[in-house]
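Section handout, structural biology tutorial.
Before the tutorial, make sure you can parse a SMILES string by hand: atoms, branches in parentheses, ring closures as digits. In the record below the ligand is zinc ion, and the chain has 466 residues. In the tutorial you will relate the predicted structure tokens back to the input. Do not try to memorize them.
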Amino acid sequence: MMLQAEFAELEEIDGVRMTWNVWPHSRLEAAKCVIPFCTLYSPARQTSQLQVVEYDPVTCKTCGSVLNPYASVDFAAKIWTCPFCHTRNHFPPHYAGISEASVPAELFPQYCTIEYSLPRLGAQSPPAYVFVIDTCVPEDELVAAKTAVQQALTMVPEYAQVGLVTFGTHVHVHELGFSECPKAYVFRGTKDYSAGQVQEQLGLHSQAAQRRGAGPPSPLKQGGAGGAVPGSRPGNRFILPLSDCEFAVNQALEELQRDAFPAVAASRPSRALGTAVAVAAALMGGCLPAGSGAGRLMLLVGGPCTEGSGKVVDKELTEPIRWGGGPTLYAFTFNGPPEPVLLDVSSITPDRILLLDAYFYVVVFHGSTVAQWRKAGYQEQAEHAAFKALLAAPQDEAHAIISRRFPTPRFTDCDQNGSQARFLLAKLNPSATYNTSSALSSEIIMTDDVSLQVFTDHLKKLAVQS
Ligand SMILES: [Zn+2]
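Predicted structure of the complex:
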């Protein structure tokens, strides 16, 4: 069995993460897996170990798959068999020299991901960013999301192309090329749309079909009403160079409201995340020339998909959902360098500073003694330089985390027993609560939730019983 570290190593190479790293052996075992089998693939993931080659990929003549380490190779006949469609393909002439002792990079088992760096003639299309914003969030989070996008827009170059899709119960595609007033096309959140349907509804369908080679553009239509102007990018009402749509996109963001269909009490909001991603992907497919330049969907999401395709949980809060966000907790003390500690309330001690990185927020938490010293201003005194350095270390680390992450995490600087301490306590395992008879911890969490220890003990008991 592979260790977690080895899976992490593979993720580092291939950008692939799976919910399960073992495969069920039977239909029954598969049915017992409550967490669905899925793969998260990050094709643009930055990796230090990427093999880059500067020649064209060898592709399967039937399915177009690229030669890879899983292909079986007949070195004598110079033939490789595609692992996807089992077609036997001849190697191109310049691979004539291959043998067991001399194989190209794409056949090395460790190069299951390689990058082809190819010189291409002709202009590349500028990068495109389509911002996909969840409006089923509290007002302050929506304001933060808008601010983050506006901040991002100040950093992308003016020639970069920008699009805007917002979603809640329904999905809105904003027409940034319409300058008179904010205008958006609405798609039902519960409906499954094909890319063609989205493009047709947006009026992109005919141009997209032409670019896929369905037929040459009619010279009569060119330049006429509704036809593509030669040299212009079809669909340029939706994804435009920032210099042409900066006003429109900012206006749309400023007027953006929370979802008009408020959540019913004790239920989750109706969030059509899957449909929004499908619509945004179809929008990109319809507006951007295929294979020319980088396009990214920038998702700003406030919760799980509860509506339409990709739904992961029902709206009723009685149905729980598993969640992570894998926060990390580090302790800073006088006794040595910072060290990772358990995400447990017992990690709180009066003489420690804790740094919680919960991705969307970062907390620096001072134990009660440290907090008292800080209030007394010991750090200002020359003889307490070590204390000054101890206070500064987690602050520096927190700001380093914040500066390299997008969207910018929220920063909380708090003390034990202070009101802001809840940002840390909410993430900790409640091994000590007001119910615990012999709490060894210097802090307790006011909750009726059971600790992980109680939960696993109970789980073991149930497993043995059955
Ligand atoms: Zn094939």
